[in-house]
UniProtKB/TrEMBL annotation:
This protein's UniProt keywords: Membrane, Transmembrane, Transmembrane helix
Superkingdom of the organism of origin: Bacteria
One Gene Ontology term of the molecular function aspect: ATP hydrolysis activity
UniProt name for this protein: General secretion pathway protein
Organism: Idiomarina seosinensis
Amino acid sequence: MYQNFFGLQEQPFSIAPDPHYLYMSERHQEALAHLTQGLQGSGGFILLTGEVGTGKTTVSRALLDQLPETTRTAFILNPMLSEDELLATLCDEFGIRYQKRSATRKTLTDKISKFLLSANEQGEQCVVLIDEAQHLKPQVLEQLRLLTNLETHQNKLLRVILIGQPELQDLLRRRELRQLAQRITARYHILPLTQADTERYIAYRLQIAGANRALFSHAACVAAHKATEGVPRLLNLVCDRALLSAYTSSSQQVQPKHIKQAIAELEGTDSHQTKGTLLKVTAAITLAVCLVVLATVVSYFLLQPNEPAMGAVEQKQDKYAAVERLAVAWQLPQPPVEQAFCDWVRNYELACLTDTLSVSQVQSINYPALLFKDQRPAALVETTDRVDTNQWNGELLMLYQHPFSSGNLSEDEQKQWLQQQLKQHLSEADAQLSSQQQFRQLQRQAGLPVTGRLDAATLAWLSSRYYQSGPRLRNEVGEG
């Protein structure tokens, strides 16, 4: 609508990740250089992170445009895949033919390996680029790592570029992914634009679109930067609407009042009532949407697949909010509403302990626990402080890191791990006892229910001693 008025040939502030409009700020130049150098090195993984809207996808598209013709690429936009789906997607992206109905994981892996070896013999490099990689399951990341094991004396036959939000860095710090983290040879975190870069960014995109004069005043650029905090995607939204506002008022140049009007329109409020930045309002809108979703969920997922429904919407809302807090304690993303919570956490190599324990037993295991009273969450225990047992009937939900959930250990290796743990926590005399007696002795020492077998509470206790990562109960005696 405003293109002819301002003499523009194209829409300058589209939010589509068009490399033609990539403004190479100093930070974007560094990001692109890190990706390019990483592909030239001998490592298997390259990491690019940044907040939403900072230009990660646009930089990755610019990288793809610079790759030589001898590079074979697989671009995965939907990371919500299982291990088998990942392998099938790689085959589809690389053009590898396979029988879809009868393909097994081994068949797909063998075909990919054969393809990579053939590409290397022809002097070709194979690259996998995964966007929104913070949503990848740990098992899928481990499958990717195994694929990168294929190498010559000089190079990896497959390079993987992981692009995601800062949560991806937290995911890669997990103990079970430490081998993958050690194989990241290049990493870069994109920050938002500075105020000077914001003004150059606006001018650059206008120039690419055909502008032959300054369409934004300096004051308007400052106002746009202040409102968006230098996030390119938000800048595009604000600047596009500001041009429309200037056009409707027949102004030849965008002024601060047009920025203010644009923000007001994007927020859906009157310009005289606009308060705060666009980022704050966006966060508020997101929070409101989440609250509406929580308030209207009728078929809320259950803790266990066969658990009977609670009936009351209020109970379901309380339960969701409670398990959401438990997920936050473990630095997990927001739990889905359509999947059982204890099924979902298996994606992160965690397991649920649902049992009836005492306060001292919860403290002995030393993981945060969600306590229940009459099927309703009563409290989330995150400290060693005294718990009001009047508000609790002993039922709880606790997460713990399951040492065997990844499937990487054989049955013999699982037995060996268990024997090592028992040996570490029992005396030499106890080590000569039968397995049942050893478990009984360990459970007595730990103050756990004495069952004489490897139950979930005992495995959680061993897990909390074996793994260094994961939340623990805080001792707040004498603190603040």
